[in-house]
């Protein structure tokens, strides 16, 4: 396993609680849209065993041509040791990234794509949308639906509807409106549904989609292949 140590080159305050840490691209480091990485702080590998409290599984919010690795995360006032350290880090300090992989690249199968996310989960979809806006080959259209009760919606310049490019974006701040809209979107029985958020959020979305007749193979999750059955067969037989 190769560990890439790299420096923070910029810290962006996206909202009062959300920051994006832009990292230098180490030589030989590659990724694609929808990638996640293990993001670790200094000292995580100082002992015999890795200190897991200093490691987090994070989505990469940028594309390679942006020449920086973006990591976007919510840091609340009361937060973990990891987030407390991260909040106090500055440009020029080093972090580690390793085990980078994409479970949710943009499928180009001549279908409509629906991106369902909660809060900062939208960060996973930023590169997919950028990739689509730059090259729409074999994607009919994309619709993004995000729920964020803080109403501090992320990446609004990118997640702005562009009818000429067949991209629509919708933000809601409550569950009732959100799940009603998911049901409406599920009227498209051929669509591809990407879902990003907490495990509870994933399961609630999957339940709604399955109840509406969407097949498990149409639902894309940022999970390893061996984890998928536990989610996608959740209520199929109910």
TrEMBL record:
Residues 1-107 form the FAD-binding FR-type domain. InterPro entries: FAD-bd_FR_type, FNR_nucleotide-bd, Riboflavin_synthase-like_b-brl. This is FAD-dependent oxidoreductase. It comes from Oceanobacillus aidingensis.
